[in-house]
Design goal:
The chain is α/β, with parallel strands linked by helices. The chain contains 15 helices and 15 strands. The strands form 4 sheets. An 8-stranded parallel β-barrel has the order 1-2-3-4-5-7-10-13, surrounded by 5 helices. Strands 6-8-9 form a 3-stranded mixed β-sheet, covered by helices on one side. The structure holds the ligand OC[C@@H]1[C@@H](O)[C@H](O)[C@@H](O)c2nc(CNc3ccccc3)cn21. The site of the ligand OC[C@@H]1[C@@H](O)[C@H](O)[C@@H](O)c2nc(CNc3ccccc3)cn21 has 13 residues, from helix 8. This is Beta-glucosidase.
């Protein structure tokens, strides 16, 4: 019998993303994405892995929906490949591309699973990148047009929409650190990209409100982290405040308050001359309230002052004595409670969903025909309990999507990092249950643990 009971209708789900699971990278008229291009550049992805085949979900989606049904999922979060629908990013639609998503949505609904669609999860059409991508303000209208088309075609059945997945990663991993597509290393550009992403989010929200199927919910997904100073020194506390601003408040404030945080805006504009904000931009952002905020939580950050960068004067540390996942991410379930309670304290926020939480482990043990991933089961147990503590503190948490439904292409790490509830053999593409999935099925059945 479950000890921790969740609210009635709590939405238990799992999440994936198009480039990470679909494969069919050039099938049926799909256009090239920046991740198709990036993953094929030698040295960018571990082992030279690419998303050419991935989990072959593009061809095996019926089997995968059957597995979701067996799992008892209430919801499934997935993303749409923009270049599968618009091969050149704008203009002609690829009928086979939109047909795939129509079939996927129908299959989910036929199995009683609520679809939640992420419009953008990092796989920009390469043709748009050649026009400057997220660094060119024209992308804002391209994204709004892409979103409006999907609202029109799928909006009668899809009632949960996420505009962007993790604009921080799109901007800084892709345009400053260079470890994600398009592999640029230009900090002022990265900050300008954040503004174009947030503005495009607002335009998409407005397009949704104006659409004939605009009676559902729309939001954004942010990767958020509690930012803890490594010591009580003034310099470390200032570094933690800077990380909270750079990672969290730079995105939370515009989408929830309609303005950028003054401390970070001043830092960026004085030191980087970025972002350029045009007249009317902030009014547009402020006039686009969301129905929910999606939160991707994986770990908290412990931060010390550092001169390693002239502007971003912080460095993350790895505390001794902690447990870590296969990604070398510290396991900090209390950080999830702290994050949710902080959001509740500092923001007038709409409904909250955990749109991603999960962990990579080696998954190299079997127990009969099942992968014996006790470490992932324990991780989820701890984080579900942390979410329950936030609920007990009065936080309006409405659902939880585990990352991920299945092992998949883990960006620059390739296929060597496994996050799935379901194990993928990449030689045979066979799907195998993990113990964490069988345990999750009971949590969903009992609505608690
Ligand atoms: O790394 C696991 C997942 C990834 O597969 C998802 O596509 C992405 O949405 C995602 N975001 C995070 C958290 N943010 C993060 C991004 C890059 C490096 C480190 C953390 C983890 N994950």
């Amino acid at each position: 019998m479950a000890q921790l009971i969740f609210p009635k209708d709590f939405l238990w789900g799992a999440a994936t993303a198009s480039y990470q699971i679909e494969g069919g990278a050039a099938d049926d008229g799909k256009g090239e994405s920046i991740w198709d291009r990036f993953s094929h550049i030698p040295g960018k992805v571990t082992n030279g892995d690419t998303g050419d085949v991935a989990c072959d979900h593009y061809h095996r989606y019926r089997e995968d929906v059957r597995l979701m049904k067996e799992l008892g999922l209430k919801g499934y979060r997935f993303s749409i490949s923009w270049p599968r629908v618009f091969p050149n990013g704008r203009g002609a639609v690829n009928p086979q591309g939109i047909d795939f998503y129509n079939r996927l949505v129908d299959e989910l609904l036929a199995n009683g699973i609520e679809p939640a669609v992420t419009l953008y999860h990092w796989d920009l059409p390469q043709a748009l990148q050649e026009n400057g991508g997220w660094g060119n303000r024209a992308i804002v209208d391209d994204f709004a047009a892409y979103a409006a088309y999907l609202f029109d075609v799928l909006g009668d059945r899809v009632k949960k929409w996420i505009t962007h997945n993790e604009p921080w990663v799109v901007a800084f991993a892709g345009h400053f650190q260079g470890r994600h597509a398009p592999g640029l290393t230009d900090l002022p550009l990265a900050v300008q990209v954040t503004h174009h992403l947030i503005l495009s989010h607002a335009k998409a929200v407005q397009a949704y409100r104006a659409s004939k199927h605009g009676d559902g919910q729309i939001g954004i997904t942010l990767n958020l982290y509690p930012s803890v100073p490594a010591s009580d020194s003034e310099s470390d506390r200032a570094a933690a405040t800077l990380v909270d601003g750079h990672n969290n408040r730079w995105f939370l404030d515009p989408v929830l308050k309609g303005e950028y945080p003054a401390d970070i805006l001043r830092l960026y504009q004085e030191r980087l001359n970025s972002p350029v904000i045009e007249p009317g931009d902030m009014e547009c952002i402020a006039a686009s309230p969301m129905d929910f905020l999606g939160i991707n939580y994986y770990f908290q950050k412990v931060v010390k002052h550092s001169e390693v960068h002239p502007i971003l004067q912080f460095e993350e540390i790895k505390p001794e004595g902690s447990e870590y996942t296969a990604m070398n991410w510290e396991i900090t379930p209390q950080g999830l409670t702290d994050l949710l309670v902080r959001l509740d304290r500092d923001y007038h926020h709409p409904d909250l969903y955990i749109t991603e939480n999960g962990a990579a482990f080696k998954d190299d043990r079997r127990d009969g025909g099942v992968v014996d991933d006790q470490d992932r089961l324990k991780f989820l147990q701890q984080h579900f309990a942390a979410a329950h503590r936030a609920l007990e503190a009065g936080v309006k948490l409405k659902g939880y999507y585990v990352w991920s439904l299945m092992d998949n292409f883990e960006w620059a790490h390739g296929y060597g990092k496994r996050f799935g509830l379901i194990y993928i053999d990449y030689q045979t593409l066979e799907r195998t249950w993990k113990k964490s999935a069988l345990w999750y099925r009971e949590v969903i059945r009992d609505n608690g643990l």
